[in-house]
From TrEMBL:
Naturally occurring in which organism (per UniProt): Albidiferax ferrireducens (strain ATCC BAA-621 / DSM 15236 / T118)
Source domain of life: Bacteria
Enzyme class of the recorded protein, top EC level: oxidoreductase
Cited InterPro entries: ACT-like_dom_sf, ACT_dom, AHAS_small-like_ACT, D-2-hydroxyacid_DH, D-isomer_2_OHA_DH_cat_dom, D-isomer_DH_CS, D-isomer_DH_CS1, D-isomer_DH_NAD-bd
Protein family membership: Belongs to the D-isomer specific 2-hydroxyacid dehydrogenase family.
Entry protein name: D-3-phosphoglycerate dehydrogenase
One GO biological process term: L-serine biosynthetic process
Function: Catalyzes the reversible oxidation of 3-phospho-D-glycerate to 3-phosphonooxypyruvate, the first step of the phosphorylated L-serine biosynthesis pathway. Also catalyzes the reversible oxidation of 2-hydroxyglutarate to 2-oxoglutarate.
Length: 413
């Protein structure tokens, strides 16, 4: 295990942000405007030793969906203060390990929701009309003027698996086109418009003309659409996956397309995705004219990416300069007021009995007056924020760092 420093205090001018995967420049602008100057950007994702070297001195790491921040990678980032996922999904980060290391992870939970919904809506119409295949034939000099296997979406059934932010948006838009919307989710959900919850995945699959997936990557969603589920779909129906590549068994999908049991598919996410735009894309799906393949761009509109850049950068900046962890996906949440005229200390500790007594005893024995204290805990980690008189801040920091249960402590500059 790499030895991290318990005291991760650093002046703003020393804090380094490393951003991967072509995160929109709006993030860099926001960080610069807030006074952060040590910003390193990478156009693509890195892995292995290159990734370890790139984040070795980083205080903030920004990723999109491709960069894998595993436990081992996180342990190598000795200075790491916070992680920003400049996207919705956070499955690429070992969230538990980040929490145990005292590192909150932030994301942008709905800045690209509309972009995904619009793309899926377009794909529904294109697939129902058989456009991908016709388009491919014409590109090769052919001509297929036919209404065979070409349908209006009006009156057809859309099956949504995962009725969260994206799933509900698509449901609302699809109803505007006259579609009947059915859905499944592991949680009880308020149906919007005339959408109907289905009693089981099988019931949804056998009723839908188009099935669209909007679940996160979890152990439960891994390969949730395999040979049996594809066989349960209506003959001549369509599958759309803009969730995560791990959710669909691609080999089983190729069999269902080969046999024409499925009429078409639109796939935006893949089990293995290239690291950047200079890499080669390999998939058994490339041979199918009736499959729309897109390079994980469901959320890649300028509107979404600009907003994501500013939103996630703002969360990192807020945590860095104020200590607030509101909307962190893996960490006790604290919303903090400004600490004008005082020094603010952050203390992240193992949440075991007696730890707060240790914190307060040490500060009291050192004669430090606590001006304000804020605490939030989860089952493993406690996060306490303490405002003290500025003259006492260094002594207070030393005392906090000496508390045996300490994971991290930091003074805000
Ligand atoms: N293609 C893209 O560019 C793109 C863009 C944004 C998001 N995404 C992916 O889409 C996913 C969904 O995004 P969202 O914003 O709608 O998330 P969300 O959290 O709002 O909704 C996900 C829904 O799935 C449900 N769910 C979880 N496990 C399930 C299961 N096993 N079976 C059925 N339902 C289940 C949840 O209860 C929730 O309602 C993200 O996690 C991300 O992986 C992809
Ligand atoms: O921009 C990306 O790489 C990920 C987009 C999307 O999958 C998300 O989770 O928001």
């Amino acid at each position: 295990m790499i030895q991290k420093s318990i005291d991760s205090s650093a002046a703003k001018s020393e804090l380094q942000a490393v951003l991967f995967e072509g995160i929109h420049p709006s993030a860099v602008e926001a960080l610069e405007q807030a006074g952060y100057t040590r910003i390193v950007t990478h156009a693509k994702s890195l892995s292995g030793d290159e990734l370890l070297a790139a984040i070795a001195d980083a205080h903030f790491v920004g990723v999109r969906s491709r960069t894998q921040l595993t436990a081992e990678v996180l342990q190598h980032a000795r200075q790491l203060v916070a992680v920003g996922c400049f996207c919705i999904g956070t499955n690429q980060v070992d969230l538990k390990e980040a929490m145990r290391l005292g590192v909150p992870v932030f994301n942008a939970p709905f800045s690209n929701t509309r972009s995904v919904a619009e793309l899926v809506l377009a794909q529904i119409i294109m697939l129902m009309r058989g456009i991908p295949e016709k388009n491919a034939v014409l590109h090769r000099g052919g001509w297929v003027k036919s209404a065979a296997d070409s349908f209006e979406v009006r009156g057809k059934t859309l099956g949504i698996i995962g009725y969260g932010h994206i799933g509900t948006q698509i449901g609302v838009l699809a109803e505007q086109l006259g579609m009947r919307v059915i859905f499944t989710d592991i949680e009880a959900k308020l149906p919007l418009g005339n959408a109907q919850p289905m009693s089981s995945l099988e019931a949804l699959l056998s009723a839908a003309d188009v099935v669209t997936l909007h679940v996160p990557e979890t152990p439960q969603t891994a390969l949730m659409i395999g040979a049996a589920q594809l066989a349960a779909m209506k003959p001549g129906s369509h599958l759309i996956n803009a969730s995560r590549g791990s959710v669909v068994d691609i080999e089983a999908l190729t069999v269902a397309l080969e046999s024409r049991h499925l009429h078409g598919a639109a796939i935006d996410v893949f089990p293995i995705e290239p690291q950047g735009n200079d890499s080669v894309f390999v998939s058994p799906l490339t041979r199918f004219d009736n499959v729309i393949l897109t390079p994980h761009i469901g959320g890649s509109t300028l509107e979404a990416q600009i907003n994501i850049g500013t939103e996630v950068a703002a969360k990192l900046i807020r945590y860095s300069s104020n200590g607030s962890t509101t909307s962190a996906v893996n960490f006790p949440e604290v919303a903090l007021p400004a600490h004008t005229g005082r020094s603010r200390l952050l203390h992240i500790h193992h949440n075991v009995p007696g730890v707060m007594a240790h914190v307060n005893e040490r500060l009291s024995e050192a004669g430090i007056n606590i001006a304000a204290q804020y605490l939030s805990t989860n089952e493993e980690v406690g996060y306490v924020v303490i405002d003290v008189d500025s003259a006492a801040s260094q002594v207070a920091l030393d005392e906090l760092c000496a508390v045996p249960e300490t994971i991290r402590c930091r003074i805000l500059y």
